[in-house]
Amino acid sequence: MVSTTVLRFLLILVASYLFGLLFYYVLDREEKLHKKKRIDEIISLTIHIILCIWIGKIIVNFQVFIKDPFAILAYPSDRRALYIALILVSIYTVYETFKKKRPFRPIWNAFIPVLLGTLFMYELLQLIVEKNTYYFYYIIIYTILLLLYILLERYPYQLHIVIYSWFSLQIICSYYLGSVRLFQYIVSPIFIGLLCVLYSCFILLEKKYSEG
Fold first, then answer.
1. What's phi and psi for 184, nearest 5 deg?
2. Which member of 90, 122, 171, 177 has the greatest number of CB atoms within 10 A?
3. Which whole-number Å values give the CA distances from 5 to 12, 20, 122, 190, in the listed order?
């Protein structure tokens, strides 16, 4: 039977994700059919990320999975599973972009505001439900990022500024809090730095590929 804590967490996660989708849908200036298509692609990408996290969890707990595959359901995902998932998603993104010549950037451009809206609402609901002021710092971070996203709507480098601001604010926050939190995962500041490098490399590769 699902515990109350797990059920509450899932409800918060779903409500936050729906808010993220709504945030994108309201702010995007494209036609409704275009937005609906993007939302379908975002949901597909989200499912892909969740599957990669599950693959990561299986890899991390491989011995348990071999002995009892169903026992893996009781194991929570940790940051190692998240790291593996992000590696798999990165490989998938590179493959789709450069090998299959699929314009993947439009999907990510739509996914970023959904992610920001989801993270903001997740932290807000955690603060309200858990009544822990620790979440307040992250609410400030995501409020700043959402405002940046809205104010720079017509600026050509909007997403780059927002993403690099997120990297910077997370590293600054880790200096004061001692760690970085991404949903329920506690990750290393070094990991945030590596994400920044990975994102920069992807931009350079995409630019070089489009020019070539």
1. -90, 0
2. 122
3. 11, 23, 15, 30
Identity of residue 90: S
For CA atoms 77, 125, 120, 12, the dihedral sign is: positive
Both tokens of 65, joined, read 């999975």
Each residue of 31-46: pLDDT tens digit? 888 888 889 989 988 9
Integer Cα distance of 51 and 81 in angstroms: 11
Strands of the chain, DSSP E: 180-182, 185-187
Amino acid residing at 66 = I
Residue 100 burial class via C-beta count within 10 angstroms: exposed 0-12, middle 13-18, buried 19 and up? exposed
Specify whether the CB–CB gap between 84 and 56 falls below 8 A. yes
Q: Structural domain tally of the chain? A: 1
Domain that holds residue 140: 4-211
